[in-house]
Amino acid sequence: MNERPPAVTEADLHAFADDRLLPEDRARVTAWLDDNPEDAALIAAWREQNDGIRALFAPYAVEKAEDGALLRPRGEAHRRVWPRRLAMAAAAAGIFVLGTAAGHYGPPLLSPPELRLTALETLPRQAQSAFVIYASEVRHPVEVGADQEAHLAAWLGKRLGIADLKVPSLQTLGFHLVGGRLLPVNDTPGALFMYEDATGKRITVLIGRNENNDTTSFRFANAGPVETFYWIDGELGYAVTGDIPRDTLRRVAEECYKQFPT
Prior knowledge:
With about 260 residues, the chain is of the alpha+beta class.
């Protein structure tokens, strides 16, 4: 592949994949892709993943009569953040940007440049690091065990400022709760829940807070065999990580999304 000139950036490629370029910029990138089939194949892969995530969350893109009320401000603290479920529905309808499994992440919607790295780059990396470190632990994988689930939810919820935090139940998918722990995410308190199936295969669910974020995004990332499905929802970020098939990871992420507080 030819070396990409400064005029065609990775951000341009992501915008091209999402049909967000002006006509003159689209023509410039199209000419570049004609001579660079590797970038063209990359864009095709991004679009395929976009379609997969839209299909996954399509059942939640249901308009409700009370949605209009969500648009009314509820105070200064909420003015910068989209209403959570309204943002999710909009994202499911196709306004979110999907990163690639190869580790390329595009610019999120409505996110200023200085926040893009924090919102989209660090969350999956931290989730994958936490998985690698703690999922392999034999004697001390968690701080609080599953036998103290109510205490675990109350403790971590208080540290994250989530009053109604619940530990997702994944038993219908074959995973039982091992427990959880407090850990730093973007230099603030974060939560990590760990689950295990009958064969001993483990997955983790990470929650972190970023009060400067105001975008909604759903993405995949991977690091070798470790896959992460993560989404940014207002001030909160969620990441499901494991060395499991991607379809299984999607089902786990969908179940977690349904159970986390609205």
